[in-house]
């Protein structure tokens, strides 16, 4: 994975580590953790639905608890991938950010309360 | 605890995902080169196994076959 210039340099390590220089068809560590990340996301979706539709509070609380842990597992994967430079993100342009900030601040005139 | 048909569907789905997840994590963790990645994936696999036990005990307590106590049917909390 090539390094990309990262505007604000806010998101920490961006250098890929620990991967073979020439990649073949076999799965490497990055592929494996990526697959676990995708799986956790899928399971989060499932628990999200199950929890909102639980018929009783005991079940609701249990599922809510599991959902929380799966969210955390997903986050742990993301953090490790990011730390290893396997999950690159681009900074939004400061102009775009302040334009949006202004736009939605102006919408406050529409608030009903 | 009384379970509805819908609850049972969701629970069955979740149990299947958890089982697949723990197997996959165990398999991947053993293949990983990087000890940090291996450790995280292994820990996540154990979490899924723990989730499986929790979900199973929900069904067991609803069926009266588990160790959990059973709330008499027709007396759903809330």
Q: How would you sum up this structure, described in words?
A:
In chain A, helix 1 packs antiparallel against helix 2. Chain A contains three helices and no strands. Helix content of chain A is 57%, strand content 0%. Chain B has helices spanning 5-31, 35-63. By secondary structure, chain B is mostly helical. The interface between A and B is medium-sized, with 33 and 33 residues.
Q: Helix and strand layout, with pairings?
A:
The complex is a heterodimer of chains A (113) and B (78).
Chain A: H1 29-52, H2 57-83, H3 94-106
Helix pairs in contact in A: 1-2
Chain B: H1 5-31, H2 35-63
Key attributes of the depicted protein:
heterodimer, A: 113 residues, mainly alpha, disordered N terminus, B: 78 residues, elongated
Summarize this structure briefly.
The complex is a heterodimer of chains A (113) and B (78). By secondary structure, chain A is an all-alpha fold.
**Helix count of chain A, per DSSP?**
3
Taking all residues together, what is the mean pLDDT of chain A?
Answer: 88
Low-confidence stretches of chain A: 1-13
* N-to-C order of helices and strands of chain B: HH
Question: Poorly predicted ranges of chain B (pLDDT <50, ≥5 residues)?
Answer: none
Which structural category do the helix and sheet elements of chain A fall into?
A: mainly alpha
Gyration radius from CA atoms of chain A, angstroms: 20 Å
Strand content of chain B: under 5%
The shape of chain A is flat
Give the overall shape of chain B, derived from the CA principal axes.
elongated
Q: How many strands of chain A?
A: 0
Please provide the ordered H/E string of secondary-structure elements of chain A: HHH
| Integer average pLDDT of chain B | 88
Helical amount of chain B = over 70%
Tally of contiguous helical segments of chain B: 2
Q: What is the oligomer described by this structure?
A: heterodimer
């Amino acid at each position: 994975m090539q390094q990309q210039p990262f505007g604000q340099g806010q998101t920490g390590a961006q250098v890929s580590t620990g991967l073979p220089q020439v990649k073949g068809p076999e799965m490497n560590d990055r592929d494996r953790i990526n697959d676990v990340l995708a799986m956790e996301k899928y399971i989060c979706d499932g628990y999200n639905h199950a929890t909102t539709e639980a018929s009783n509070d005991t079940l609701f609380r249990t599922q809510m608890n599991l959902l929380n842990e799966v969210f955390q597992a997903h986050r742990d994967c993301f953090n490790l991938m990011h730390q290893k430079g396997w999950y690159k993100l681009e900074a939004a342009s400061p102009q775009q950010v302040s334009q949006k900030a202004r736009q939605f601040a102006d919408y406050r005139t529409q608030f009903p309360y | 605890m009384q379970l509805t048909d819908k609850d049972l569907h969701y629970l069955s789905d979740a149990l299947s995902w958890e089982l697949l997840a723990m197997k996959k994590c165990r398999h991947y963790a053993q293949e990983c080169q990087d000890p940090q990645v291996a450790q995280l994936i292994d820990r996540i696999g154990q979490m899924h196994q723990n989730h499986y036990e929790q979900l199973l005990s929900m069904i067991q307590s609803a069926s009266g076959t588990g160790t959990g106590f059973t709330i008499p049917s027709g007396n759903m909390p809330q």
